[in-house]
Input
Amino acid sequence: MSCISGKNGIVPCEDHKDCIDKAMEIAERTCSEKQLKFTNLRREILRMIWEGHGPKKAYDLLSELQLTNQSAKPATVYRTLEFLIENGFIHKINSLNAFVGCSHPLKQQDCYFLICDNCNDISEHCDPAITSAIKTITERNQFTLKNTTLEIAGHCNSCIQHRD
Ligand SMILES: [Zn+2]
Ligand SMILES: [Zn+2]
Ligand SMILES: [Zn+2]
Output
């Protein structure tokens, strides 16, 4: 996934621990600014999503959580994921039915995701041209936009280069 300390989505991070720390710090600060409770559970699940360097499924999060908290239920995980999505800390990748950490949680833009079919790498990018194209399309169709998730499937550069 594209990491928080990377200059852009394509450059992988040097030390992913920094990305985790930064993601946790931003979430911590945002919650206190918005007066939201950053509970242990919310903190734990956000960290789990960031720890795997790729998309995470809800049931993997649940079984990880159950290692330390046997009473954790699927509903607990889904409620927490909803909170993290609503506040822009993570994204749901619908085509994979999985979750990734947001690489730029302070700048909510219309993002698009490039998803490699082969290695499952996901990178997050944003482009003002997409924002304005979507605005034009929704206005033209008198449609009220709630949120946009654009998922583009294909092969990443490193998979293409190592194909032979
Ligand atoms: Zn990283
Ligand atoms: Zn994002
Ligand atoms: Zn790939």
Q: What stands out?
A: The radius of gyration is 17 Å. Helices lie at 16-33, 40-51, 58-68, 74-86, 128-140, 157-161.
